[in-house]
């Protein structure tokens, strides 16, 4: 049985099933292993990890601990309550109408970040006059329909991951800041910070950056230099604002003081940096990498919510969930009718009732002609169904994005 326990309950002889933190936050080669020494427990604590999941069939048990399913059920219920309190962002054009423009912006932004990284590696300053127009294009796309570009950016290949991750963080920061009502200039600065937040990785050797496995302690230390290196590079950029500098330097800080490079406590971390930390981790844990399979967007949000007890600002995590939706566009869901479908559009009135494109009946085991179902509408008016759960695409051997 898988159980969630506090690190204070860890003992030698327990089998760690999952370290319960984002992959970039710990120095272990594996996330699952048998605890053989007290020094391993000390290393877990030192890494700023507060809770872990253990496998009681492979090691010692903690009787009073909650099961993994109990934790999931509680978190899911709380998330649904949060999502039902506020409407989703206004959509100006349909997802389908924005897809073409979003695809072009994704390609252009990826090329731009690649150029910025190459210039930084050569010691050149970032040219803001090249970056600003791209921020404007991303912002306009998000204003038209935030789901289009953010959904496309979930598709990354290992060779271009670093560049597309930066585009994703920039785009999500723009959407996040817009959803909490920031002014246009603050949104622009936040997008700029997101797009440039990993500029320091230009100085990390490719064999470390793209290593298909866990990093050694020495390699982990090199990776941890990138916020400071990126900050130093941006300081050479004429006209750079305080917000991009802050996001670049502090996007790996955590509110419990366990982050880097300065181990700042929560009250010393700005709101923008706290928002960037949430966005950065969300995009990282939902992306496929050569050394781990990305979570679904809904599972990623649940993990962020779980970790907000210690690592992130809980109110900001809740605001981010409302920004992207509990069931973001592209999520595979199972409906009460037994049909499988893909979320294709958020509904402004209720994040729990998106528009879904159904294509398969789990009851008859038969593929059906794709049909749009607006869950916000009653039966007989193109609706009348309800989401029971989100589903793992691998389980059903389907790529949800092909239905968008």
From TrEMBL:
<dbReference type="InterPro" id="IPR037522">
    <property type="entry name" value="HD_GYP_dom"/>
</dbReference>
<dbReference type="InterPro" id="IPR003607">
    <property type="entry name" value="HD/PDEase_dom"/>
</dbReference>
<dbReference type="Pfam" id="PF11871">
    <property type="entry name" value="DUF3391"/>
</dbReference>
<dbReference type="InterPro" id="IPR006675">
    <property type="entry name" value="HDIG_dom"/>
</dbReference>
<protein>
    <submittedName>
        <fullName>HD-GYP domain-containing protein</fullName>
    </submittedName>
</protein>
<dbReference type="InterPro" id="IPR021812">
    <property type="entry name" value="DUF3391"/>
</dbReference>
<dbReference type="Pfam" id="PF13487">
    <property type="entry name" value="HD_5"/>
</dbReference>
<feature type="domain" description="HD-GYP">
    <location>
        <begin position="140"/>
        <end position="336"/>
    </location>
</feature>
């Amino acid at each position: 049985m898988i159980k969630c326990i506090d690190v204070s309950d860890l003992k030698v002889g327990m089998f760690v099933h999952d370290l319960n933190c984002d992959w970039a936050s710990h120095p272990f080669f594996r996330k699952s292993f048998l605890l053989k020494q007290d020094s391993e427990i000390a290393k877990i604590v030192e890494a700023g990890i507060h809770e872990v999941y253990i496998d009681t069939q492979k090691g010692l048990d903690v009787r009073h601990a909650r099961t993994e399913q109990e934790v999931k059920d509680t978190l899911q219920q709380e998330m649904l309550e949060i999502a039902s309190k506020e409407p989703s962002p206004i959509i100006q054009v349909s997802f389908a109408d924005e897809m073409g423009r979003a695809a072009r912006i994704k390609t252009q932004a990826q090329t731009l970040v690649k150029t910025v990284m190459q210039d930084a590696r050569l010691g050149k300053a970032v040219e803001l006059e090249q970056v600003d127009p791209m921020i404007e294009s991303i912002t306009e796309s998000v204003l038209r329909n935030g789901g289009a570009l953010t959904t496309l950016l979930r598709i990354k290949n290992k060779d271009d991951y670093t560049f597309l991750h930066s585009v994703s963080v920039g785009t999500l920061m723009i959407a996040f800041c817009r959803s909490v009502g920031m002014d246009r200039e603050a949104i622009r600065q936040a997008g700029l910070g997101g797009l440039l937040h990993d500029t320091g990785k230009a100085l990390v050797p490719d064999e470390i950056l793209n290593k298909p496995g866990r990093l050694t302690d020495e390699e982990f230390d090199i990776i941890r230099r990138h916020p400071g290196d990126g900050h130093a590079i941006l300081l050479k950029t004429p006209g750079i604002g305080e917000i991009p500098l802050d996001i670049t330097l502090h996007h790996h800080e955590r509110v419990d003081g366990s982050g880097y490079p300065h181990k700042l406590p929560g009250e010393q971390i700005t709101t923008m940096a706290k928002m960037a930390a949430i966005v950065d981790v969300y995009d990282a844990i939902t992306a496929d990498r050569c050394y781990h399979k990305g979570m679904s967007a809904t599972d990623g949000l649940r993990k962020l919510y779980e970790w907000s007890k210690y690592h992130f600002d809980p109110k900001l995590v809740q605001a981010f969930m409302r920004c992207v939706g509990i069931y973001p566009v592209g999520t595979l869901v199972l409906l009460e009718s037994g049909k499988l479908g893909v979320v294709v559009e958020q509904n402004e009135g209720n994040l729990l009732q998106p528009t879904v494109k159904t294509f398969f009946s789990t009851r008859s085991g038969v593929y059906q002609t794709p049909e749009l179902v607006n869950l916000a509408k009653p039966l007989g008016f193109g609706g009348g169904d309800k989401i029971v759960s989100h589903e793992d695409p691998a389980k059903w051997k389907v790529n949800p994005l092909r239905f968008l």
